[in-house]
């Protein structure tokens, strides 16, 4: 018969350890009550048995193995010399391992709940049998530990004690059969959750699942289903399979899903974040194109205005300059009319286009459908920017919640090792991609774990600060020089009245050349700094490229809105809005051409030079910061130009689509994975943040300033004859109030909500407050998780402390007894 363990619960060292910190779903949370109950039931006889067993085992104390670290339990006293040598090596790591534990301490350790789980399968099966019964009966109350049967409680049997093995095996089989019966009666979801929560090995869980499914099939096959029930059963199965197939089909429709998995498996999360960000920008431009095309381009294309001058012929150069033939098309602002597009007032059903000026009143007895192009132009741009702002804020908030969380590499590494494989994947190509992806993620996690922060002396720190200061000085000085050169060159191009189509490309070429060459200087400065962390080096490169792009765009916006728009009469421009739209088109096109040149000369030819001339297999590494800032730069140009060129999002859409395949092919052929793998868990969040605040916010400010403060051209566009573009909304509200005095509230609402900039600032403040509160909530969750992790570590230290004190008390009690035994043997 198995013997019960009894130890003194009134000892002062045991008072702090009565409450177990572990919570095993109602079984181990009351471990102290179970110990007290066992102590009361055992009484002095159990203590006498423990003392007798202790004297028997003390004779073989030299053979007691060391205490291994959890979850390893004592291996036994019959290990060979190789295991003992291995234990000697372990003792150098953990001070607790260096102790030789007595038999009583080992028996107490073996009776702990954490050591019992996984060894006493009978208790586990009984426990989950009770759980399945409770789940079937839909009871919400939590039973006390006294309500469990003794077999369902945690075992506190001593380690190494023998019992009736035959009865135990028979009882375990009986418990297993009852558990299988209960699992069979559960739903599929409850059954999966119950099996997943059992503290058993994967093989034992699979065996239970197999027995349950086998018995369920046997039960279904043994029953004779009615014809209607059988048809219903087959219909349900067919519908379920159809639903799963439909979900799989929808998942396969995701754009570039296979290519993204491939590049993520080979090059890591950093390069993958670039292509994911590119796909995000593609969707933003698709939204802009659909909105402007449906409410601005399509109505104007259906009702084209009367063009007095002869239409220019197409020569092919317009594809580079954007001028000439494209000037008299829906591509630019100047083509759109300031008329009200409407159907004929005749009742015969015939359709004809009537162009009515904003100042002309229609006198028609029959009602007709009208479309005010100035109003549609104004509100389409405003609503498109407002919805884009909401999407950006939501994406940034969601990305903050996903990225800035507590994710220690050790815990994520365990999750990746044991939980990352998807057993539903059966295709060879998918399996290969998944293997590469998991392997790359494990490399990144291991690199982050093995990363060591080297301690440097004061002289070394001072030297590094001087190197960093020199590098930043070089980067800022070069950026300032380039920005000043762009400022004076744009002023020169603006003052030159003899501008032909070819000379219009000079400023875009100079700016694109600076954007291409200056990041190389930044990389040279980063090589001089010698950052130990690749992540820090990436973020520093992003910040330097961001300073360059923001400075260049600031100078260009001043050139367009402060020179061209204000001094339009001195340059002989009939429509400055169309000229700005053409400039933005040229900048966008030159940026794409220089990106292709960089891909060709910087990646492809460099790879050939290394392989053929240098005879090396070394390939260039994909420059994430420069390529990402190029995307943000191009998207900022597209947002700036949507007011002056409504079809510019379509050009950006085509550019991004081609750029994805060009960059993807170049990365797979010409680039190699980083030599030092690193994980960039917050890279996507930083990209979205940069897209929102410097890029979208700056473009919104420029567009708002153009609509509220700058006078439109008097000879072109939908806002000709007005002081500002914003007055189109005022005139529309005034016309509505004149036609129907009951709509005076609409005029007041427009005056307070739209005309007053206070509500614009309030809306922007609300968005900022939402972002702030969400970041604070995420930060609070991180702090709580960090405190819980520290508490778990402290619990482990408390256990080590209590075990060491138990061992010391046992040593003090054992020493007098051994002295008496030695004296008796001497006598």
From TrEMBL:
GO CC annotations, alphabetized: plasma membrane
Residue ranges occupied by any TMC domain in the UniProt entry: 575-681
Record membrane topology: Multi-pass membrane protein
Gene Ontology terms for molecular function: mechanosensitive monoatomic ion channel activity
InterPro entries, alphabetized: TMC, TMC_dom
The organism's place on the tree of life at top rank: Eukaryota
Location, primary (coarse class): membrane
Pfam families: TMC
Membrane spanning residue stretches: 272-298, 375-395, 470-490, 502-525, 546-565, 585-606, 627-647, 653-671, 683-708, 758-778
Keywords from the named record: Membrane, Transmembrane, Transmembrane helix
Segments of this protein annotated with the region Disordered: 59-80, 136-171
Coiled-coil ranges per UniProt: none
Subcellular location: Membrane
Protein family membership: Belongs to the TMC family.
Protein name from the UniProt record: Transmembrane channel-like protein
Highest classification ranks of the organism: Eukaryota, Metazoa, Chordata, Craniata, Vertebrata
Gene name tied to this protein: tmc6b
């Amino acid at each position: 018969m198995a013997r019960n363990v009894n130890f003194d619960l009134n000892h002062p060292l045991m008072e702090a350890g009565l409450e177990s910190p572990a919570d095993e779903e109602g079984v181990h949370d009351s471990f102290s009550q179970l110990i007290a109950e066992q102590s009361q039931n055992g009484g002095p006889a159990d203590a006498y048995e423990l003392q007798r067993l202790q004297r028997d085992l003390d004779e073989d104390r030299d053979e007691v193995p060391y205490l291994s670290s959890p979850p390893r339990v004592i291996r036994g006293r019959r290990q060979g010399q190789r295991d003992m040598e291995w234990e000697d090596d372990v003792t150098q790591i953990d001070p607790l391992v260096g102790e030789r534990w007595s038999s009583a301490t080992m028996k107490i350790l073996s009776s702990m709940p954490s050591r019992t789980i996984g060894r006493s399968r009978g208790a586990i099966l009984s426990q989950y049998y009770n759980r399945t019964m409770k789940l079937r009966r839909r009871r919400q109350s939590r039973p006390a530990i006294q309500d469990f049967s003794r077999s369902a409680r945690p075992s506190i049997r001593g380690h190494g004690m023998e019992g009736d093995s035959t009865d135990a095996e028979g009882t375990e089989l009986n418990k297993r059969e009852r558990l299988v019966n209960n699992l069979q009666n559960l739903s599929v979801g409850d059954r999966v959750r119950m099996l997943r929560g059992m503290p058993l090995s994967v093989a034992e869980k699979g065996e239970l699942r197999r027995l349950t499914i086998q018995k369920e099939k046997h039960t279904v096959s043994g029953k004779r289903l009615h014809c209607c029930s059988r048809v219903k059963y087959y219909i349900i199965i067919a519908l379920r399979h159809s639903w799963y197939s439909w979900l799989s089909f929808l998942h396969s429709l995701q754009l570039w899903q296979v290519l993204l998995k491939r590049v993520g498996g080979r090059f890591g999360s950093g390069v993958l974040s670039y292509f994911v960000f590119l796909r995000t920008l593609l969707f933003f431009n698709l939204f802009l194109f659909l909105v402007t095309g449906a409410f601005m381009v399509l109505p104007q294309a259906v009702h084209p205005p009367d063009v007095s001058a002869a239409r220019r012929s197409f020569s092919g150069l317009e594809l580079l300059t954007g001028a000439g033939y494209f000037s008299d098309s829906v591509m630019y602002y100047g083509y759109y009319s300031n008329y009200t597009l409407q159907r004929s007032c005749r009742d015969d059903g015939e359709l004809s286009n009537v162009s009515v000026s904003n100042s002309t009143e229609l006198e028609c007895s029959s009602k007709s459908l009208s479309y005010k192009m100035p109003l549609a132009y104004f509100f389409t741009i405003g609503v498109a920017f407002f919805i884009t702002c909401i999407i950006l804020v939501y994406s940034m908030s969601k990305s903050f919640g996903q990225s800035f969380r507590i994710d220690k590499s050790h815990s994520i590494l365990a999750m990746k090792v044991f939980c990352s494989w998807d057993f539903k994947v059966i295709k060879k190509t998918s399996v290969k991609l998944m293997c590469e992806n998991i392997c790359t993620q494990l490399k990144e996690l291991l690199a982050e774990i093995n990363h060591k922060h080297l301690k440097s002396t004061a002289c070394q720190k001072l030297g590094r600060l001087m190197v960093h200061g020199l590098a930043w000085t070089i980067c800022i000085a070069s950026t300032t020089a380039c920005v000043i050169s762009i400022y004076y060159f744009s002023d020169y191009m603006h003052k030159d009245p003899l501008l032909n189509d070819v000379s219009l490309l000079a400023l875009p070429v100079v700016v694109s050349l600076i954007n291409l060459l200056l990041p190389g200087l930044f990389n040279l400065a980063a090589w001089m700094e010698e950052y130990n962390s690749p992540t820090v080096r990436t973020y520093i490169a992003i910040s330097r490229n961001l300073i360059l792009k923001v400075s260049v765009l600031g100078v260009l916006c001043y050139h367009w809105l402060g020179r061209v728009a204000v001094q339009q009469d001195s340059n002989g421009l009939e429509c400055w809005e169309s000229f700005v739209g053409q400039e933005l088109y040229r900048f966008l096109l030159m940026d794409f051409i220089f990106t292709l040149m960089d891909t060709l000369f910087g990646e492809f030819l460099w790879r050939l030079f290394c392989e053929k001339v240098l005879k090396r297999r070394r390939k260039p590494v994909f420059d994430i910061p420069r390529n990402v800032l190029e995307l943000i730069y191009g998207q900022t140009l597209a947002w700036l130009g949507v007011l002056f060129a409504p079809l510019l999002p379509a050009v950006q859409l085509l550019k991004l689509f081609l750029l994805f395949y060009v960059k993807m092919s170049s990365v797979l052929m010409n680039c190699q994975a980083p030599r030092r793998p690193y994980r960039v868990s917050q890279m996507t969040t930083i990209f979205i943040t940069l897209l929102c605040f410097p890029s979208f916010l700056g473009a919104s400010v420029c567009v708002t300033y153009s609509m509220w403060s700058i006078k439109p051209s008097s000879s072109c566009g939908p806002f000709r004859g007005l002081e500002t573009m914003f007055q189109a909304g005022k005139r529309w509200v005034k016309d509505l109030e004149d036609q129907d005095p009951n709509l005076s509230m609409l005029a007041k609402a427009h005056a307070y909500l739209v005309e007053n900039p206070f509500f614009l600032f309030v809306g922007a403040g609300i968005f900022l407050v939402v972002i702030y509160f969400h970041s604070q909530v995420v930060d609070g969750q991180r702090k709580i998780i960090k405190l819980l992790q520290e508490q778990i570590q402290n619990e482990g230290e408390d256990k080590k402390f209590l075990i060491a004190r138990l061992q010391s008390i046992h040593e003090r009690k054992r020493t007098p007894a051994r002295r008496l035994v030695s004296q008796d043997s001497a006598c």
